[in-house]
# Entry
Amino acid sequence: QKEVEQNSGPLSVPEGAIASLNCTYSDRGSQSFFWYRQYSGKSPELIMSIYSNGDKEDGRFTAQLNKASQYVSLLIRDSQPSDSATYLCAVVGNAGNMLTFGGGTRLMVKP
Amino acid sequence: DAEITQSPRHKITETGRQVTLACHQTWNHNNMFWYRQDLGHGLRLIHYSYGVQDTNKGEVSDGYSVSRSNTEDLPLTLESAASSQTSVYFCASSTAIRREQFFGPGTRLTVL
# Structure
């Protein structure tokens, strides 16, 4: 079983809709959670970080964390074609500063 | 502006050659990391460093080495390049306290 799991997609949503991306993790002691966006041929770009249970909003992005259920999600409101990318979930476990990445979910926003 | 750079951006080499990929950051971050990214495997950690003279093996360290002689640089060396090391390599850095990592632009390495 992978430590951090994501549906590979592609997840296709129409422009203006809400895109919902999900991630589950196996290390119950994980403390820090991140979402990265990666455009094709580019490097991962940090877009959200979340450390405590609940929601964290930043512009059109909302990260949601539920430690009891061991999942973290990313909502993108008013999706735009420019949001089309692969979204990587990353988790820092109980020890150290190392990120474990999920395989990523490819999002396609259609005009 | 502070940044993290990698060089070269593209490299083609032959099996058995030694190759060194450079990573340089100007954020004064203590922590530096090397990853490789392959289709079907995602991002995998190769080596990491928490400070000068500190290096640690990651998930896929065989065939790779790093050294950290200053805060800014963490070069990655492939001792004897193999075709299985054809990949995109990313360097990243973070502070000692916060765990958010920031990535360089990547190096695409092809081993023929």
Observations:
- The first strand of chain B starts at residue 4 and ends at 7.
- The interface with chain A takes residues 31, 33, 42-43, 45, 48, 50, 58, 90, 94, 96, 99-106 of chain B (CB under 8 Å).
- DSSP finds no helices and eleven strands in chain B.
- Chain B has a mean pLDDT of 94.
